[in-house]
Automatic annotation (TrEMBL), chain A:
InterPro entries: P-loop_NTPase. The lineage of its organism: Bacteria, Bacillati, Actinomycetota, Actinomycetes, Micromonosporales. It comes from Micromonospora sediminimaris. This is GTPase.
TrEMBL record, chain B:
Residues 93-112 are annotated as: Disordered. The lineage of its organism: Bacteria, Bacillati, Actinomycetota, Actinomycetes, Micromonosporales. Gene3D superfamilies: P-loop containing nucleotide triphosphate hydrolases. It comes from Micromonospora sediminimaris. It comes from the Bacteria. This is Isoniazid inducible gene protein IniA. Residues 42-213 form the Dynamin N-terminal domain.
């Protein structure tokens, strides 16, 4: 198993660093923290500019309204048996915060705290989605100072294993901020830890109901941009607002939407032209102002337009409408990407953040062992095929390489997209004999090597095939080692 | 009415010419032509995806600029009036860098684009010649608003807003009358947008912020309020107009006037019309003031820099030379004192050292002579000793003189060192190199007059001594009955006589030795006095020679330095006068510029209400 090799290498490096820095209490503390972090759930931070939809997306991912807690503090969402929140500030000892539950989520009582006083808030929340992932809601990163690395982003890169980077257009200042963070040997390696999310896509394109389709095109085009490609593993469009609405859609809201949908389109349309018209005017469905405001809050005017259209065209019960909203929001794809690219590959991401931390430590506090450790780190990175595999997995997911479906499926299987065990990679029964495994792997290796060297195939595909062939070689090496035992 | 601002503009142009700034003159001339042109150029700028193109579409009520997800305006789009809808890609050939902008722009290449391919044209994929210069797409539309003389320019949204206009094909910013900055309602104005506004308001009198997409956000009023506050905080005097292009287009499609009013566009169009109406007068005045300010700033900057440069640069070249010459004079004075002191001190040392050395040498000689005559008899050894003495003395004098010469030489070099920085620490033509003759000859060593012990004296002394012995023993023996003269008394007499002779001889030797010693002593003293006098004279002579030589050298140097000081002073004086003149000139020019600016200001002051700000 190639994954295990990287894992062992990183642990070994951490222990060696710990031994080398045993006289330095600060460094030892940091390394011990990294070792402890290695076995904790994956930390995924939601990062983005001001009003880019961070908290909404986080709510949509969790399916409950739990964010935002405090706009200027890092908010950690961990799995826990009871809803509970703890505030950490620079001046006070950690303090329990009151959690007020609401129908669709919770609110943390922050009375008595000044804005900016709290540095971290840890929220424990019973949710299945948090089993393997700790989500991190961050303050906005600013575009004001383009030279220096943003302090928020710097801290995120230090403390999180993976990023969901929210941007509206995958261009300009957003890319510059993200690009400024690629420092060091590890930073220069393949960016497997960032998914770029085109956020608030419901509002793009002048608020048309098919905005998400346009956003998908935009995402594909962005991925073809080498500048974007070098910064993230994939680009996913997602409307957090619609996704959240789909996940928490209540019966009353559905009833209201259904009532709206019953009004003839021509009659309703003038009221849906703008948010203000919908809120202030008197739509014929006889909804009171509070309900309309709640709907606006939940769906936005574009969302209401979309929802009424959906109800009219067949989603005539709450469950169907909710599912369709989630589907149209792109949330499903985002979660799938999150699971396949982050959660399933968490050992790669954990290794990556440990390596980043070690590298930063070596650069900040050079000691007698620095040279050796840096060399070991670079060797580890150079041999880490996992990053290439992660990249290929992402590329296979969004189909940008142009493999046909069958080949794509095989490639995904071989690079570990369906499981890391040799049998799972080779797609044969788990109780297969070593000889059989060997034969299948050798055959696959030969086939993909052929593929990689075929001049009649487009260059991106040949590169992908190279990665697959390399994975097969890794498998063969592992099998040989198993045979020797 | 137009006359006043035209006069002011012509004044500005003249000033540019006076200052020899062809580039500014060109700009002012362009501005003049542009201000006389009655059309109002409206530039629409902003970050990408803020709805710029949609805004333009909504203003003219036609879907001319392509909008939608990820559709990006690549070429600037210029909308002007035409009887029949048309579209053309206009491309200027690349001008070679370094060539000054010609008075008449080079011929442009115009490629007509079918109206159904406008989207591709704006996207930059159609109608553009490869390798050509910057291009823009020009769209003609039959619209009343455009017919009234308005030209709309939809700029591509740049990530870097400040770079917009730098080399833009229509030299957009320089020619725009009104700039609309587009920002959408889903968020507040960003820092870089505010920066761009500040930049714009410095060069354009009419800048407005258009907040689009109010239909999407229920709380757009709150956003608008916040944006107005941001503008006020940043000190940007730009009005903010919230609009919804979607509502406007819908209203146009359905002919709904209430909806149109709700879209916010009537306010925007009224603003643009007001600007259009105000262009020949108020706007032109404001533009003149801005032009005057830009020009005056541009012209004053080098002058001011020169002025401060001059004030700070007291150390101009002539002044620096003067100061250096003064320093030289001081240095020479110090040098003169230094070498004189050195010479005097060293000479005093030399004289005392030489004398001491001579004394030491003669003393040693004397001691050796003394030792020699302690035992030797001058009668026997005199000649040898005298010769040795003579030789030793001559040798001592020579050694002493050699040392004197060496020391003088060393002193001369030592003093010459003081002149090292002047390059010629020359030594005097040296008169002491050859061992100089003594002033007076040393007196001959006279043979001292020493008593010899003659035979007669010896006999006499022997007789005297033997008499006593004979008588003493004879008398005593007579008592024993022996005769007076008997062998015993004769023996004793002989004994006594012998002893007397020996004693006498010894005494005489002592006396002789003492006499000789005294004589030698006297001689050596004489010698010492003579030689030391000579040495002293020689040293004095050397001192005089050195003094004269170096004094002459100092005089020479002083003359040269004083000469250079005088010339430096003259140069500095003329330089100061020239600088004074230049300063007065610059100040006058500055005053003239200030007047020019004042004059331009009065163009607007004549009309107290410059541009009614929008509520």
């Amino acid at each position: 198993m190639t994954g295990g090799r990287l894992d062992a290498g990183v642990r070994d490096l951490l222990h060696r660093a710990l031994h080398g820095y045993r006289d330095n209490p600060r460094a030892s503390e940091l390394l011990r923290h990294q070792l402890a972090r290695y076995d904790q759930p994956l930390r995924v931070a939601v990062v983005g500019g001001w009003r880019s939809g961070k908290s909404t997306l986080l709510n949509a991912l969790m399916g409950e309204e739990v964010a935002p807690v405090d706009g200027s503090a890092f908010t950690w969402y961990e799995d826990g048996p009871q809803p509970d929140a703890t505030g950490y500030s620079t001046s006070h000892p950690p303090q329990r915060l009151t959690v007020l539950r609401s129908g669709t989520g919770m609110r943390v009582d922050l009375t008595g705290w000044r804005a900016g006083e709290l540095r971290d808030i840890v929220v424990r929340w019973p949710a299945r989605s948090l089993r393997q992932v700790t989500l991190l809601d961050t303050p906005a990163i600013g575009a004001a100072d383009e030279q220096a690395t943003d302090p928020v982003l710097a801290r995120v890169l230090r403390e999180a294993d993976a990023l969901l980077y929210l941007t509206r257009d995958a261009r300009g200042a957003d890319l510059r901020i993200l690009g400024a963070t690629r420092e060091g040997v590890v930073g220069q390696a393949a960016p497997v830890h960032t998914i770029m999310v085109l956020s608030r896509v419901d509002e793009s394109g002048g608020g048309r109901v098919d905005a998400l389709l346009g956003a998908r095109q935009l995402a594909r085009r962005a991925l073809r941009d080498p500048h974007v490609d070098s910064l993230c593993v994939t680009v996913v469009p997602c409307s957090g607002l619609l996704g959240l609405a789909g996940r928490v859609l209540g019966e009353t809201e559905f009833t209201a939407l259904a009532a709206l949908a019953r009004v003839p389109r021509a009659e309703l349309e003038p009221y849906l032209l703008s948010a203000e018209r919908f809120a202030r005017g008197e739509p014929p469905a006889g909804l009171d102002a509070a309900t309309r405001n709640a709907l606006l809050e939940r769906l936005g005017v574009v969302g209401i337009r979309l929802a009424t259209t959906l109800v009219r065209t067949g989603c005539d019960n709450r469950v169907a409408l909710a599912a369709e909203l989630v589907r149209r929001s792109g949330l499903g794809e985002l979660r799938e990407s999150l699971n396949r690219l982050f959660v399933d590959r968490r050992h790669v991401l954990k290794a990556r953040s440990a390596l980043t931390a070690v590298e930063a430590l070596l650069r900040d506090e050079p000691g007698p062992v620095t040279g050796d450790l840096l060399a070991a780190l670079e060797q580890l990175l150079a041999g880490a095929h996992e990053f290439a595999e992660s990249r290929l997995l992402a590329a296979l997911r969004d189909g940008r390489l142009g493999f046909d479906a069958e080949l794509a499926a095989e490639a995904r299987r071989l690079v570990g997209g369906d499981g890391d065990e040799p049998a799972a990679r080779l797609g044969i029964a788990p109780d297969a004999t070593l000889a059989w495994l060997w034969e299948t792997a050798a055959e696959a290796r030969w086939r993909w090597r052929e593929h990689a060297e075929d001049p009649g195939i487009a260059l991106p595909q040949r590169r992908g095939a190279q990665v697959v062939a390399r994975s097969c070689e890794g498998l063969l090496a592992d099998l040989a080692a198993a045979h020797a035992r | 009415m137009a006359g006043i601002w035209l006069d002011a503009l012509d004044d500005i142009a003249r000033t540019c010419q006076e200052h020899g700034r062809g580039d500014l003159l060109q700009a002012v001339r362009l501005k003049r032509a542009h201000l006389l042109d009655p059309t109002l150029t409206v530039l629409v700028v902003g970050e990408p995806n803020q709805g710029k193109s949609q805004l333009v579409n909504a203003i003219v009520n036609a879907p001319v600029c392509p909008v939608g997800d990820g559709t990006t305006t690549v070429l600037p789009t210029v909308l002007r009036h035409a009887e029949v809808a048309s579209a053309t890609v206009v491309q200027t050939p690349l001008t070679r860098p370094g060539t000054p902008p010609a008075a008449d722009p080079p011929a442009v290449q115009r490629t007509p684009v079918p109206t159904d391919q406008i989207a591709a044209g704006v996207g930059g994929s159609t109608g553009r010649l490869p390798g050509g210069g910057p291009a823009y797409i020009e769209i003609g539309l039959p619209r009343g608003l455009l017919g009234a003389g308005m030209v709309l320019v939809d700029m591509p949204g740049g990530g870097d807003l400040a770079a917009v206009g730098a080399g833009a094909p229509v030299a957009a910013l320089a020619r725009a009358d009104t700039v609309l900055l587009v920002t959408d309602s889903t968020r507040d104005l960003a820092v870089n947008e505010l920066n761009m506004l500040l930049h714009l308001t410095r060069s354009h009198s009419n800048v407005a912020v258009v907040q689009t997409k109010t239909d999407l956000v229920p709380d757009w009023r709150a956003v608008a309020d916040r944006n107005r506050r941001h503008l006020a905080d940043a000190g940007v005097p730009a009005p903010l107009v919230p609009v919804s292009a979607a509502l406007r287009l819908h209203a146009a499609a359905t002919g709904d006037h209430a909806l149109n009013a709700e879209s916010g566009f009537p306010a925007l169009i009224a603003l643009l019309r007001r600007h259009l109406a105000a262009k020949p007068d108020t706007l032109a005045r404001a533009a003149v003031v801005l032009t005057a300010r830009t020009v005056v700033e541009q012209l004053a900057a080098p002058l001011r820099a020169e002025l401060t440069d001059q004030r700070s640069a007291e150390e101009s070249a002539p002044m620096a030379r003067l100061h250096a010459a003064q320093r030289e004079v001081d240095e020479l004075r110090r040098c003169a004192t230094r070498w004189q002191n050195t010479l005097t001190d060293e000479m005093a040392d030399l004289i005392s050292d030489i004398e001491h050395d001579l004394r030491d040498r003669t003393r040693q000689i004397l001691r050796m002579v003394d030792e020699a005559f302690e035992t030797a008899d001058p009668l026997v050894a005199w000649d040898a000793v005298a010769q040795w003495l003579e030789e030793s003395l001559v040798e001592a004098a020579a050694a002493n003189r050699r040392w004197l010469v060496q020391r003088c030489d060393w002193i001369a070099r030592r003093v010459a060192e003081s002149f090292a920085r002047y390059g010629h620490g020359s030594l005097p033509p040296w008169p002491l190199t050859a061992s100089a003759e003594y002033g007076a000859p040393v007196p001959e060593l006279e043979r001292p007059n020493v008593d010899r012990f003659t035979v007669g004296q010896k006999m006499f002394t022997g007789m005297k001594g033997s008499y006593g012995g004979l008588l003493m023993f004879g008398l005593a023996l007579t008592l024993a009955g022996m005769p007076m003269i008997n062998p015993i008394s004769i023996g004793a007499g002989a004994l006594f006589g012998g002893k007397s002779i020996r004693d006498e001889g010894k005494q005489l030797l002592r006396r002789r030795q003492a006499t000789v010693k005294a004589a030698v002593q006297r001689h050596v003293d004489d010698f010492f006095i003579q030689v030391s006098k000579d040495s002293r004279d020689a040293a004095r002579r050397a001192q005089r020679v050195l003094r004269d030589h170096f004094a002459a050298l100092t005089d020479e140097l002083q003359t040269a330095i004083i000469e250079s000081l005088r010339s430096a002073k003259e140069a500095a004086d003329t330089d100061a006068a020239a600088r004074e003149r230049r300063q007065r000139e610059i100040q006058q020019r500055m005053i003239r510029l200030a007047e020019l600016y004042e004059q331009a200001q009065q163009v607007t002051a004549a009309r107290p209400a410059p541009l009614a700000p929008l509520a």
